[in-house]
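@channel anyone free to eyeball this complex?
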Amino acid sequence: MTEPLPGTANPPWWALLPSAEARVSCGEETHALRWDQGALTALDHPDAEEELVLAALGGDRPACVGLIESWGRRGDDLQVLAVGPRSAADEVSIPAADGPAWSGGPGRGWLASAPAGAGPFGWPRASLLARRTRVRSRGPMASMGMSAGARAVFGRPMLRARGGRIRGGADRAAGRREELFSLLALGPEFQMRLSATVAGAWGDGGSRAGERDRARPALTAALAGRLVPAARAWLGIDPARVHVSLYEDAGWGRLAFSGDRLDAALPVGWLASVWAPGLAVIAGHLVVAVTEAAWPGATVLAVPGPGADPVVLKVRAVDGGWIRAEGAR
Amino acid sequence: MTSAQDRAETYLRLRAEAELRRVQALPRPDPPAPPGLPEPLRDAARVILPFGRRAAAALQPLAESAGRALQPLAEDAEEALRPLARNALDAVAPFAQNVARSLEPLTGQVIGTVLPAAEEAARRLHPLAWQAAGRLQSLQWSGERRLQLWRWQVRRATGSFYGTSDDPGAGPGDLSADEGLGRFRLVARSLIEAGAIDAGAAESAVEDLAIALAARSRIGAHMAAMSGLADEPMRVSAGPPHGTYLAVPVGTLIPASPESGLANVRVYALVIGPDRAILTASGRMAAENLRSMHLDPWPLFGQGHGPTAVDDRGNSYQIHQDTGWNDEESWGGILRLVPVPPAGTGWLDLTISPGSAPVRLDVAGASRPDDAAQSGPDAASGADAASGPAERMIDAAATELLHLAVGNGHALRWHDLSGIADVVAALEAIGALEPARAAVGRLITLAGRLGVDVPPALAAAAPPVPVELPDAWNDVMANSQLRDGPRGVTPAAAVLPELDSARFALAGLRSDEGGADLHVMAWGSRVVPHYLEDSIQAWSWWARDDRGRWHVAEENSSSASDGHAELTLRLIPALHPEATSLEVAVIGRSGQASATVPLDWRGRDD
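replying in thread with the prediction:
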């Protein structure tokens, strides 16, 4: 069994996630959404905050602004981790919107979108986009400049029936599903970033870290769902032999091997800082923590094999993946 | 959240992860089709049906002759379908596609001949379908499960052609994504029922898995949309409406109107609850009015005025048919009184048809429940008093198996215990099985006696020492072949004490040589059956007649809405021919409620 190392001053969870951009239908036009350093912005709505206020008063809510709002609302929602991708190979492809089947009512759906531009890993370089907006979402309702009570998806009232009355649980559930699918439909890069946002909210120092007790089952499952495929890629181990728990003490965590069984305890922050950037398994090592990040380079703690202590690796992002930049020390 | 609840939710969520991995290892299915008919058939139906309705009315005589020709087929359908089932999946799909392709260009030609006959065939087959549905429902087989078992049968049958019937992968444990989700929901419901997990947490886990599967196109979008709705009743456990519940025995045979499709009407009982008043009734079809069956709507009580009632205060009531069934010989159903008679009503005079003598119903002297009596875990029942909800749940699975064995032994061939085995494994994993281990032993002993396979997960949870079966279970099996039941009907009206936020009222019993059908009215959200999925039984029913013969009961048919259900229970084996009273008990999560009714036979309806 490897022993926990002393805790390290980790960089922000988004440090190894480069910016990403998606284009979405917004009214009659196609607009851009940009994720950068943990925040999502609507590039074509410089007065988005005012638009949100107007929407709260009954005006139209542009789709872009609705997505920003949804992103903020779901930025600490554990359902994102329950539904979102478990690995880069796990294709979460939202079928074309067909309204009633998903939402339980006609006329609903989400707007297809796709990443735009190209850069490392297929996402656009931040330098390509210069416009900023005042409406940003870094996490759960953060920087929204609006009340949490205002709700919208794609500019349409979500919880109100045609007659304006609040409808029951089925509609609320349908609205939640629709909202989540609208965010997942932004594409794999945004799926990873949204997952990382949620994990960051529940990780140490996150806005929901103090409530982990009641969320431990969902967090444990979220961790297991992503660590098990990584362990399989690392060791070829049978998923049924991997037992995962949430690590909440100081240090990176714990890996214990007993026969053909692996007991793994990692902090929920691992999902945000290691798994989401695609760093889980590098050069035959299981990465357990990021100690330094300077995109496109990083220094990580990684376990080379069963029973071994973690070693320090320098890694570098190249052509949509990560490679070992230099040997372990 | 308690550590036990935490453990249960963690188990459930990790199981969801394992299920998602399992499903993703399955071959990717074709894109999900919309619910309902396959698209080619739907297109054909869209074209044909408007013409077909008109054609059906014009070609009624042809339809009737076609119906007569099809009648022998209908009578033998159940027997005929059983062997057909083996090849049905392979055979039906290409046939359906060919039919659709063929029908489209031939629409104009076929509507004159095919549709009337088809409509008549459907009409004739309708009672049979209800009976079949009732039987299947009594087996607690969901649509998914039926399909699963059917597929299993097909695999076995086709395997025998190719010499691969011993393929270990061709068993009912080989679940599709839909079936796996159903199984997951079953386990989640069971953990709620056992009190091991908060309903909201379990519902959330089910919904999350459903959405995760749908987002990977592993199940249809509608399945994800349904997941939350299906679970709503278990989260919101609404009790019965507050107020007075009465059950009035009637048992009177009343001649029907000459215009009616019935020769007479037997009213079994009147049940009055705070929100509804119901008469249970049956009738013999009038031979001279058989043609009326083809009218839509069917004039059950003639074309004029329907049944009415007045009370001792001069209030008038209308009576409407609520639900019902019929075959060539008889009709049975539920009649609703509108409005509900107010508290303090002394009697009601019921008039089935204009001019017929009214029948007086003694409301003031009706049976009222004694909520303080006959309720609790120590009251007499068929099974040993269960010590907790998990034990009751497993005993309910055994009761279902027992009912199957006694009532329809050949169904045992297709009955598998993998669902309850999964539930037992889940309870074991979260440390909640110990109080129910004896029930696992009883189930294993019973399965062994009946020759039903015991899944390894169930066998692994067996107590170290074999468990004997309760006397009542042995008694039911010992009498399973008896055909000495009295033929007749009896009012059998009684309101049971409230149990687990549910209220049941007995509302008439009809006995035959092999068993008896007992009408039951029920209130409360937990009485609503879950038709569309695997589900654990929330209630077990037992009865014992005053000659000491035990009877196990299962739902034979039911309808439900708005936290209210109307059930028909099939009691087997036969009532003792000399029995004069019957104690009926329903066993729930926290204990049981019972009532004793006289067996006051009022003659035969057939």
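from a first look: The first strand of chain A starts at residue 20 and ends at 26.
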